[in-house]
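Justification of computing resources. Each target in the renewal requires a structure prediction run like the one illustrated here; the chain below, 250 residues long, is used simply to show the kind of job we budget for.
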Amino acid sequence: MLAIARKTIIREQLREHKSVRITELAELLNVTNETIRRDLRSMEKDGDLIRTHGGAYILDGVQNDLDLSTRQFLRTGEKEIISEKCSSIIQNGDYIFLDASSTAWFIARAIMHRKVSVLTVSLEIINLLSTSSTIRLFAVGGEYSSSTKSFTGNSAIQNLEHYYFDKAFISCRSVSLEAGLTDTNVDDAMLHRLALAHAHEKYLAIDNSKLNRASFAGIAPVSGLDGIILDQPFPEDWVRYLNEHSVQIY
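Resulting structure tokens:
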């Protein structure tokens, strides 16, 4: 099969699934992993996709939901910066909520030797913080999702309704000044909405790739937040809006 034909199929897979794995493409196209790697490198240069560890993904579409195993390898440097900023906001004795995002896992790692109480739906964060001698850990149960490695669904939402916290740190798929915070599926959006409603201080922790985009399900307006933690300086229009609505910039 010619390279142009392989790339057409790869584009089709990306449009349907939003992310692809090298091993799966190699099996589908009956070629070697290295052939697929060359194709992906070429397609990235053409702006068709973004390569990651073991595959590639695209950001197009309101229903672009990448599984956690893919997200864990994306923008790790940016997430390190974000997690350190979040750690500076958290005080010993705080009760905090962390969602199931890969960014939240970096926050958990940054605070795992602090004396704080953490409530989370993330199995990855539960496993990480279960080794800490200083963290008081609360797990929200529910239907387990293998793609997000977290507990979700109505049972998780009903469980979360019983808890309140000093600070909630959430991430989401997209955020814009017009659409506010948005996510790729309704269950995640509902859980994020409830977490923010039950928090005394509400924080959004995101990297710059999520700005000025909109996904499928709405969560909350940007003006309802107490602060946004970003890995780099905000655009000027964002600075004006956040200052006008007393949303702290980190």
